[in-house]
Structures are given as structure tokens and as C-alpha cells.
Amino acid sequence: MTLNALDYSVGGPLLLDGVELTIDRGERVALIGRNGAGKSTLMRLIAGELKPDDGEIRREQGVRVTRLEQEVPAGAGGSVFDVVAEGLGEAGAALAEYHRLLHAEDYDALADVQARIEALDGWRIDQRVTEVLERLQLDGDAAFPALSGGMKRRVLLARAVVSAPDILLLDEPTNHLDIAAIDWLEGFLKQWPGAIVFVTHDRRFLRALATRIVEIDRGRLTSWPGDWENYVRRREERLNAEAQEQARFDKLLAQEEAWIRQGIKARRTRDEGRVRRLKAMRVERAQRRDLTGNVRMAAAQANASGKKVVELKNVSFAYGERCLIRDFSTTIFRGDRVGLIGANGTGKTTLLKLLLGELQPQAGEVRSGTQLQIAYFDQYRATLREDWNALENVAEGQDFVEINGTRKHAIGYLQDFLFTPERARAPITRLSGGERNRLLLAKLFAQPSNLLVMDEPTNDLDVETLELLEELLADYPGTLLLVSHDRDFLDNVVTSTLVMEGEGRVGEYIGGYEDWLRQRAEPGTGLPAATLGMRRPEPAPAVAPVAAPEPAAPKRKLSYKDQRELEQLPARIEQLEAEIATLTAAMNDPAFYQRDAAAITAHGASLQATQAALDAAYLRWTELDA
Questions:
Q1: What letter would DSSP give residue 300?
Q2: Residues 6+ apart with CB under 8 A from 505
Q3: What is the sign, positive or negative, of the torsion defined by CA atoms of 389, 395, 398, 400?
Q4: Pick from 401, 462, 468: which is nearest to 393 by CA?
Q5: Which whole-number Å values give the CA distances from 23 to 26, 39, 68, 224, 425, in the listed order?
Q6: Which has the higher per-residue pLDDT, 522 or 65?
């Protein structure tokens, strides 16, 4: 498929402006860009669900395209077989009807349906549906509405692939999937023979799958090889060069504006060309589309909680015969950042409710700490009122919100989360998934809290906002309970993990997802090796005496000069770190790029030199201290 000079607008500047894109057989293209940049719109254009305003889409004869939507369709019913068969058009509908009549034992009506199926070569298609259900480990007779969110996504994936499309379009395919399901999906898609175009917020999923990265930025597309680290580095270089070029242009425009204001001298005949050039520069500046700003997050903080936030002693909980938590003990202290990991349905939400005191244990004891103020992020966004707009959901009738002693107008506060005044007053039914998540974050952080509870906060967020959220949570002075299937996010945020290991076992591990992977498998047993507070240590087996370690080389006594240098290095390191912080803060100021190119280059060189001096100071301090 080839897209040539494609334009598409939804009012205002073009959402897609002169887009050029070729999709080759067998490649896996990751579409990335800020929320609202047009990723889902581009996929709908590729799928043929939308028509471009201008340009053309050329596809090979007979190419089939299927799209997996971002959200589970409302009102979808019937059995899993019925939903999957819908992906095969008229023949699939006939097959679904045949299976319903067969289960209802309505044999009188079966003959007509059988005739329709035979006319459409439907029995061969029936075999294909059965094969896909087996391949994706789905029960065709199960009721679709009764499935979990993750299983519904798997059924919709089956519906998308059953027609064996040449181009498979996936919009946030990892939403509501647990870690095991995401790993399975990675393996499945790597074996997919056709082309894949996908949008995802999961950076690890993207790195594992993408053979090419296509970025949508201000309506334009740029293509990069599927190397995430290289993309991030090259993008920063491009944006820096763009900022320098814009600063040079703006300086020249300011000089020309100053010249034209001199009056009659600027209107001499010989300067008419200069006046025309100025007019052209004004048009160019007016048409410039500035880079979308970043969210500015700050969490309203309450007074500190007690040192002990929650303590569980020998807690058990079961639903009927199914034991979710058995004899589990743990203590969470102020400042802990705890991640909850486990497959869907293993009891993460139950454990969360026990920790928060919303559910009483059937055995054992839960003790909550003092002075707790809890803010809760709900992955299903149930705390957002559908009959209110974004402004009403955050301000709740007030004109101002107060963040850490500072009053901000509610509109200004929402602008920090990239909502324009018009968007802030729009019904939330018109907001995208990413906008809804940003709105929920704005509502959450406006509440003073010392205990943050976040259930899948990363769904639908763009990478820039995700990284800023990581930074905010790293600096949050209170306690964090985080449920997430985003492996990189867990690694970057949490300091310990609680893992639902099945059969009521809850493992407690130090570190994030990768740390859990390293600790969980004990050779020869299959049991977690570093579970804290779960099992008593095994007695050490009898082993041959270990040879005594060689004596360490005696430390060399420092000379007076070296000793003096070692004493002065901490202050030197502190000074260099302060200089780097000042230089970096200056570069974060938008006005910085209004300076001339030489000053910007000199500033960057100064930052590099200071960083090199800091690295050298740390290295020298390590040498002397050893």
C-alpha cells in the first residue's frame, strides 16, 4: 500500500499534511506521536474507513486490511464464535447463525442456513474460525460479555486475523492485557506473515516488535529504522537543529520588522524587494506549527502519614473454593513504591482492596496507618462523570484549584495538562482515550494525598507524558501502590513488587519487573528464590569446605596532597552539579531558543564541558577513596 500526498483535516491546521507512506509486505510499523497527533485517524484512512481530503491511497489488487479498535465495542454480544465469525462478512454471519440454531436445537431452520453456507463455501471458512480459536486458546462457546477485558481483546484480535489480512492494524493492542498475555502477543505477532501497523504506549513491546518507526509530528511523517534508542537520539538532534534554525529565522524577522518601522526610508523603490521578502517571512512565521508542549504535572501533597502505612498479618481471602490470598504478611512503610504484578483474575484488585481497608480479610489482620489521605486512579475511569465536561470533572464547580499552597485557575491548571480552553469545556464523551487519561491524572493530582493508588495509569498515554509521569512518581514524597502491566514503567518507578503467584501465594520482591524475573526462578525447584516473608530459609546443604579468600591487598596510604584533594572533591562535585542544574534549567526555558545560534552553541559546549568535569571528579573521587 502507498499513500501519496495525503491531506486530512478536522478543522484548524491539517491533522495530516502531505503524508507519504509505503507499507511493504511482512514489515511491522510502529506509529508513534503525541496524543491527538492523528495516529488513529491515519489507521482509519489506511483501513478505508475515512476518505482523505486530498491525495491518493494505492493498494495492490486484492489486498485485505483489518483493524483492531482501541476500545472493546459497546453492546457486543453472543458467543466467542459469533464475534470471531463476524470478521468473515456474510459467510461468517451465516456460520454464526448455524451455530446458534444448532445449540438451540432448532433443526427446522438449519436446512436453509446450511444451503447459504454451502453457496458461500462456508464450511472451509468454518474450519478457519476453528483453527484461529485453537491458536489463540479461546473457547468458542463462551459468552463474550462475560469475559474479562483482556480476554475480550484476544477475541477481537481473533476476529481481526481470521480473514488472514495482508495488513493488520492494531490500535493499543496491549491495553488491559496482563504481562503473560503481552508476552504471548509479542510471540504471535512476530510469526505473523503479513504487514502490521500498530500504535502502542508500551516501549518494551515496541522495541521487541517494530522493524520500522513512523512518527507523526505536526501533520508530517518521518520514518526511522526500528531501533528505539537510535530514534530517541536522532529525534533530539533533529529538534535541536530545528530550534536553532527557528531562532535564526526569528532573529532575522525581528531585524526586518525593526527596519520596516523606520518609516519612509523603508518604502523607497529600491527596497520594494525587501518589503516583499518581509511579507513572505510573516506568512511563513504565521504558518509555523510549534512543537506540542509537555504536560506540567505537580501532585498536591497532604501532611505526611504515619511511618507505618499498612500492615498485613497472616491474611487470607477466597471466593468460594478459589483461594486468592493465603496466609500473607507484609508491612508497607511511608515512602515505599510498591508494584502489583499478576495475571488478570489472580487477585490484584482484591489485594489492593485489602491494603486500603475496603475489604475485610476472612482470616488474619489488616492494620492501617494514621493520617492517610488516599488518591485513587481507576483504569476504567469510573471516577469521571460522563455528563460533565473536563473542567467540571476537575474543578467540581470551583473556579480555582489549590496545589501545594498555590491557587491556580482551573482553566490554567488544565492547560498544564494540554487542554485548550475549548477542549476543557467539551463533553468528555468527545475526548480520546489519551485525553481521558490526562484528565484523570489532572483530577487525581489536584487532590491532596500521601498515598497514591494507581491502577493501570499508562494506558493510551504518549511516551513524553509517560516519562514525565515516571519523573513525578519518582519524586512523590508519599507512598505509591501501582498496578501495571507496563514492564518498563514498573522498572522505572517501583522499589518493590508484590506478585500474585497462584494458589493463594503472594511473593514479595525487592526491585521492579526485571528484578523479579531474576529472582523468581530457583534452579531445580521452580519456586521463587527471593520471596520475602513467605518461606523460611532452607538449611544449608553440606558442601565441601570453601577455600579461604586471598587476603585483600593492603590499602596504600594517601599522600598529604591526595588526602587534601579527597577532602575537597565532595564540595567540587556539589558545585559542578549545581552548575549543570543551572545550565539545564536555562535550556528548558522557551526563551532560550530566541537567542542567536552562536550563543546557543556556546551554552551547549559549556554544559558538555561541565558534565565532563563532573565525570572526571567522580572518577578521581572513586580512585582516591579506594
A1: -
A2: 326, 534
A3: negative
A4: 401
A5: 9, 15, 17, 13, 39
A6: 65
